[in-house]
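INTERNAL AUDIT FORM
Audit reference: QA-55
Scope: verify that the stored structure record matches its stored sequence.
Auditor: D.O.
Record contents follow.
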Amino acid sequence: MRGRLRRAPAKGQQTTVSERSVERWRRQWREHGQGGVRSKGSPGRPRLNEAQMARLERELERGPLAHGWADQRWTLARVKTLIGWLFHVSYTVEGTWWLLKRHGWSWQQPARRAIERDDEAVEVEEGGVAAGKSTAAVRGAWIVCEDEASQSLRSPRARTWGRVGRTPVVRVRGRGSGRVSMAGMTCFKNGERSRLIYSFRVHRGRKGEPKGFTWQDYRDLIVRAHHQLRGPIVLVWDNLRTHLMPQMKAFIAENDDWLTVFHFPAYAPDLNPQEGIWSLVKRTIGNLAVANLDQLATAVKRSLKKIQYRPHLINGCLTGTGLTMDA
């Protein structure tokens, strides 16, 4: 006879069974007789061995696009289907959830990354920082990572408490132009306190007003950083058109005794610790109801100033990139 009855405890042995389980067994016995209470085996026995599970994880990391789906979402139904394709093993949706959770997978909000990004270049070069670290170690220089950001009158949305079924509403300016532009540098050196140096500009949308930072603004920011840090600089920044202008290249060549420049790989903002600074700034002004540009500029400047006095936040932005200052 296939299956077996549930083994009764030995004489004098106690067992802990919930009332709900007893009621469920009794109901199964009434409806299906002796066969309804036969054991189906250990529920914890894995249906995929270690080698199969390792292969499944590799296929999941390749993404849904590699397996013919149009979007890039792994759902339980898709994972269940993939297991059937690969191993001819049938899982339920609930079983798939338990399988993934048991092996360290969870339902997450994905980060965005450009399709044009060259992951091999990022892994090999660490975005230019690897060469920059070697140069900085030889010259005793600071590693300086630069980036730009801007903020309009519509402040970033941030999570807030609200009644279930009623989406909270944040009041923002529906008209009015202008924005606040920021250019920042995170500065790191072994044995020194990490620094944040920034430049700040308010664009009011007036006729003839520059819409962004010019190459002269970046030049002045680099010179100011050199004076404040009191040492040579290894600058790492992206391939913004303004960074590549002939005037900027000439300035870099004229000051090669204290300035060395490297570039991040294209479409790799996650390697720049300055991106973490912008994230901190925009988190502090989330849902901010500003009346005008001056109020916005004051809030942004106050946030940057607070970060300047908290070097552990700057170090945290470097840690978030996965890069280190070890040579």
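Auditor finding: record pair retrieved intact. Residues 1-5 have pLDDT under 50 and may be disordered.
Action required: none
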